[in-house]
Design brief:
199 residues; seven-stranded mixed sheet; Maf protein; alpha/beta
């Protein structure tokens, strides 16, 4: 089994990556599991693509093994694409998911549901010691709900409502989410590119 380092210690991302790449003979491990303890990466890019590349490069340079990085976030049309690359720290540094959700609900308080269109974006970069690079992007569209709903998922999932399913991301099972999520879509394209690379 080939090892690939996930440039993150986010257990939710690790779980999603492992599930989706499990049939690809890749063992996905976090930076800490690979021996990079308290390794801080400054994500100062202006786009998801830039931040994804920054993370993957930093870990590849340290460990010299195939590295995968995901930079993802929520873009709300009414807010001109905010919170975007600042999704994780929308309410400030070292805040909880709850803090970010509260801020978003506050900012959109007077905005009618139909004008709360949004999309989740995931950009995944995979780098190899050979210098090969794969960059893929996945998106899913929805609306920001008026209140939080659901117990599953993480981040903005309780607020991200998918009209076709009449549910928020947090009301889906992990299996359902892994079928349709922005990260799932990006990983599906990644798998196609990995297949082409191995042909």
């Amino acid at each position: 089994m080939k090892k690939v380092i996930l440039a993150s210690n986010n257990s939710h991302k690790l779980e999603e990556m492992k599930k989706i790449l499990s049939d690809f003979n890749y063992e996905v491990v976090t930076m800490e599991e690979a021996g990079l303890i308290n390794f801080e990466i400054v994500e100062d890019g202006k786009t998801f693509e830039e931040n994804s590349l920054i993370k993957a490069k930093a870990v590849l340079e340290k460990l010299g093994e195939p590295t995968i990085a995901d930079d993802s976030g929520l873009m709300v049309d009414y807010l001109d694409g905010e919170p975007g690359v600042y999704s994780a720290r929308y309410a400030g540094e070292n805040v909880s998911y709850e803090d970010n959700n509260k801020k978003l609900l506050g900012v959109l308080e007077e905005v009618p549901f139909l004008e709360r269109k949004a999309k989740f974006v995931s950009v995944i970069t995979m780098l190899f010691p050979s210098g090969d690079e794969i960059v893929v992007r996945g998106e899913i569209e929805g609306n920001i709900a008026l209140t939080e709903s659901g117990e599953n998922g993480f981040g903005y999932d309780p607020l991200f409502y998918i009209p076709e399913l009449k549910k928020t991301f947090a009301e889906l099972s992990s299996e359902e989410k892994n079928e349709i999520s922005h990260r799932a879509k990006a990983l599906k394209i990644l798998k196609e590119k990995l297949n082409q690379r191995n042909e």
